[in-house]
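anyone seen this seq b4? input:
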Amino acid sequence: MDPAPSITLRHLVMALGDSMLEVQAAPAGLDVEIHGVALLDPEDPPTAHPGDLVLAIGSRGRAAFPALRAAGRDGATAVVVKLDAPAQAAGLSETATEAGVALLSLRGETRWEQVSALARAALDDAPPEDPGAAAEEGDLFSLAQTTAILTSGIVSIEDAANRVLAYSRTTDSDEADDLRRRSILGWQGPEAYLAKLREWGVFQHLHSSDEVIAIDSHPELGIRRRLAVAIRSGDRQLGTIWVQESSTPLSERSRQALLGAARVAALHLVRRRRELSDDVTLVRTLLAGLMDGSTGPQPLATHLGFDAARPAAVLGFSHGTTEAYEAGDAVAAPELAHTEVTNLVSVHIAARHRSSLVTQVDSRIYVLLPQLPRSIDTDTLRGWALEITDAARRHLGLPLRGSVGCLVPGLGAVPESRREADRILDAMVSARVSAAVAALPDIQAEVLVSEMLTLLSAHPEIRDPRLTALVAHDNRHQGRLAETLLTYLNSFGDVRAAAAQLHVHPNTLRYRLRRAEELTGLDLSRPDQRLLAMLQLRLPPTD
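predicted toks r here
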């Protein structure tokens, strides 16, 4: 039996935002887990279950004390109450701390059923225990946040009954218009505006089309400009994504980002309906097997209805901090959420190719592009990957690297494309390639040299002991003889160019070269020794 889904209190508070909830006390911190949502009616005896988020409906002020004590006694995680006055917070917080349970206060205008629905939605989207799967799937709240970043707007995701399922966070409450606030707090939108939407055919458009529609601003109704797109599964509308323009205009690529977000959101909503309860795990397993060659193409093709005989390719992306650019770029924080990066990749590539599949292995993200048009070329795929790396740099401040695996004639050759994507990423790191995206023809020499160095690293018996001794001498004396020699060789023997690169006088460089030859017995007039030195001195330092 699968374990019940859970989220942390931190995740819940971040998802619902401070426009709805405020933390009054958290004696065990914010990383405690929530396993379920319980409604506590004032006429019921105060009880709870371990891990519950208890919604103390109708228990205001002193009436909430029994609920707090019972929640602590029964092992609940948190209690949500409404306050009649801010002064009540101190006494309730003290009681919650004594009981060992978190206390959240609900904004007075917020409806309990909306909090319950959003909390249950967050639990429904809770990622599985497998961290790789969590990064791959994400949740609707993180998808809303990613879409907000890509569009420079304020995002809400609704189901087919116009109930808010998730929304992006805002840093300024003045950014959200009246319709946005009313929708999130569970109120019905202004009827005059809804009538306008019906009059303009917006709901009819969303019901019948998957194209993005723009809705003009109406200052007289307190409504700002919006974009909307239907979330669809086949011919059926599952919901809608709305993007409200804030004080900043929407980005140029908002429509493209919104199309991709709708396709990603459809997977979440279909999964929520349990129509594909085990499908996510099955697709992930079949995709992993196809990418590493342990499973043939037919199972995935049959399951998803792909044409296995049409061209395919793999894009690779690396966002590990150890692989960040070193040419003046700020290294991203190690805690950067994998979900944000994966969502960004998923949204962008879904807008370009509907059949794309995204998965993550360790710190790398892979995109499978099945059943591509036969006319497509590497330049087009490079452009898609560049859009993604540019978006990551602009919106997440992340120096993402991308690689374009070779185009292959069918799904059966996908492992070859994935291997090529990995070869390129490996070389981009070891050779410090400055390009954000590369295909094999772009950096073939760097790839081959990188692989030669890998072989040399794995076979110390074929190294020149004189060069090994030179590196060891530098390590003992904090010297720079090996670095000087490699810089000189990389400069084709141009003393002045090498000296300028090292910021030393040419005579200093000549002295270091003579010293290196004296210590090692190397003869730099011999081409073979120069070639071996260029290779061996490129090896990474060892402990």
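DSSP finds 21 helices and 17 strands in the chain. Residues 37 and 116 are 7 Å apart (CA to CA). kinda curious what u guys think
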